[in-house]
Structures are given as C-alpha cells and as structure tokens.
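Possible race condition, two jobs.
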Amino acid sequence: MPTKKKIRVLECIRQGQIGGGESHLLSLVENLDRSSFDPVVLSFTAGPMVDRLKKMDVPTTVLHTETPFDWRKWRKVKKILVRDRVDIVHAHGTRAASNVLWPAKSLKIPVVYSIHGWSFHNDQRPLVRRLRIWGETWLTSKSSVNISVSESSRQTGRDMMHSFDSVVINNGIDQQLFDPQKRFDEFRKQAGIPEAAILVVFIARFTMQKQPLAMVRAFKNAQKEIPSLHLLMVGDGDERKQVEELVNTDGLIGKVTLFPFRSDVPDILAASDIFVLPSLWEGLPIGLLEAMAMGKAVIATSVDGTREVISHNKNGWLIPTDDLISNLTAALVMLAGDAAMRLRFKQNAIQTINERFSARDMTRKIEDIYAGLSSLSSSYS
C-alpha cells in the first residue's frame, strides 16, 4: 500500500526575533501532525526563533530583508519554494505575505495569510494609511485563504476593505510549556529582584504601539504609593533607548529591571505578580494569553482583540487608552494592594485559556485549511 504523501507547508515570518507572530509560528509548527504535514520555515531576519526551529530539526531558511514588498527578493523566494518542493505557503503577517505572495502565485501554490495585526492604523499620516490599506487589499484579495486572529480584526478588515473575507481562528497557547503547576527556575534570584517585591512585568516590543514609555511613567507614579513595586521590562525596539534614559533620569534605577527579549518567558511569568499590556491596538496578543495561562493578574488596554479575551474585573482589568498614564497608575495601585483580586483574576484567567485558547485546537483548525487547499497546489513531487 503506497505511503500517503505529506503536505509540505512553508511557514513564512517577517523576523527571527521572538514576538507574538513568532511565538504563534513556533506553537503551530510544534503541534502540526507530522504524519500529514511537513513544515519548513522562511524568516526574513535571523534571531532566537530561527535557533529554536533548528533545534527542533525544522528546516529553516533566512533571507534577509526588512522591507515589505521587496521585489528584489521575490526571485530568490521563488527558488526557495521550488527547492523545498512547497505545496502550501502560510504567511504570518503583512511583511511576510508581501514578499511571498507573487512568487507563490507565479508557481500556482496556494497562500494562506494570517493577519496578526493590520498594518494600517488611525494615527498614521493619511497618505501612509491609504497606501497600507491598498497594500492589505491586494494581499487579502490574492491570498487563497485569509485568517483573522480575532473577530474584531476581521470586522476592521470588512470596514476598510468591502470585499474582504476571512476565517477567524484565535491564537492558542502551548499549555504544556505555559503550565503554572510546573517547577520553574528561580528567576528573581538570578535577576537580583527582591523576593518580597510585587513584580510587575511588561514583555513586548518597545514601540509606540505597546507604550513602554507610558508603562515607566505610570509605574513611577504607582511606586510612590506602593514602594514594594518592582518593574521588569523585557523586549527590544525603537523606544528602548528612551526607556533606558527615562529610568536613569527619573531615579528608577534599582526599581526597574530591563532585559532584551529572552527565551525563558515561562520562568519570568512564574516569578511575576502582575502582567501589563498597555497597547494602543492589538490583533489577539499572544503575550497576554501566555500570562493568563500562567495565572497572572492582568492589566490591559480595552482595544481590539484584547477585549475578546479579558472580561473586565473577572479575569483581568481593562483600562481605556485615553489618559493612559493616569488610568494605568490607578490600576497598578489597586491591583498591587488587593491580593484577593489578584488570586481571583489568576483562577479565572487559567480557566479562560483552558476553555478557549488551546494551541492544539488552533492547529487542528489550520490543518483543516491546509488539507482543503492541498488539492489546488502545483506539486513538485
């Protein structure tokens, strides 16, 4: 009896650093049914994610570009698709989709486009925003299947692009990795953070979207009222230097600990008390889901996909983006001073993840899409 041919899927991502989309890709690859699917990965920069994939024996290619619609790379991408005998391309994010769509379509390979967050936002200059809406319209109209990670993200797409349609598949968390019942390394001791401190954690890119500067300013205000607070910020990005300067000039040395992106996120979360995500917009934030899976009390802004995860004052605390520093300060003071509330949020957060955000369930839904598209692919076998 002939062996069933595996479906070769190229998972494509914009960068090799660890962020939301990259964590999603790792979870997807780890949970794919290897008896039916054979994943390979294309990343447009190197980084820790690439190292992890290689340790997992997942063939991974790095083709460096930090430019969307970089037509200079398209022929090289096409050669990779042929070399790796790809049946389906799955692009994670705008930059990845913009640099694989033409090569894949030229080879008649179906493309799945996962929209982890739209590239257009209300704070952009009008011309930039119009160009990005045009770009997303082209990408989504040419892709074989679009996946929205939240219902609000799908609705935004429909509001801005009237022909847009997608399947909603929520991000999922690897609950074996993010399991609060496991034993974890003593991160506080390693990082020099006092055991008695109430540890507030911010794990995100240091960009305007994630509001790291507002995080520091709100923490400074809250720490005046609750001196036992300590802030840990993990990440890199455009505003990293400004954050470092603010910590130095505002007298927060010894109260704020800064690290670049790390791979031991479960250990960090296990050591923390409060997780904060003060973003101006989100698709469906994986960092938030990871923190909730670890039973952390969460403060987050009431935006987009975050509202689909957090029920205010049940499994977390939502704040408006207006007057962000003041609202975040008040939430930090309140939650730091109420251990019973933190415990209630912890229990309800774990239940939310168990019921709605499993990586295994997410992967099965994506596998169904792959299986449905496989007959459309030009095979190289």
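Job #2 (started ~2 s after job #1):
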Amino acid sequence: MASPARFDLKLDKSEKTLFARAAELMGTTMAGFVRVAAKEKATQLIERESRLTLSAAEGRQLLEALDAPFRPNPALQKAMEAARRTIKRA
C-alpha cells in the first residue's frame, strides 16, 4: 500500500454499532470493514457510471452506422478540399 492518508468520519451511535458488528462478523477492525465496504461501493459506482447501456434498437442503429460506408458531411468535405489546396506532399 502507498503511504497512508488519513480520513476522519463522524458517525452517529447506531451507525457505529452497525459497522462494529459487521466488522466483528468479518473478523476485522471497524476501520478495515469501512475501508473494504467503501472501496467495493466506489468500484461498483465507477464501473456503472463508466458503462454505456443501449437498448436493442440503439444497438442495431450503432452497428448499422459502424457498418455503413463513411460519408463526410459538407463541413468536413470543405475542410478536406482546403487541406488539399494547402498541403503539398513530397
């Protein structure tokens, strides 16, 4: 583990009792229990929020778009024409 960083947490009595009981059941300290539980919850949240979920219809639309031939829009066509006039290749 990297150098430890301190994190203080105020709990009401019922929360402390709950966490202490759970820690005892796990055979760890209350700090160890809270650390593991917080890490699991944070990991789940980050994974959930990082995932893109599509409906079946949206998935089909995405696959169709990926399979379709590329067609540049007018702004991109104009930019490519300007680049061709400006850039000289050796």
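The chain has one domain: 19-90.
Logs attached separately.
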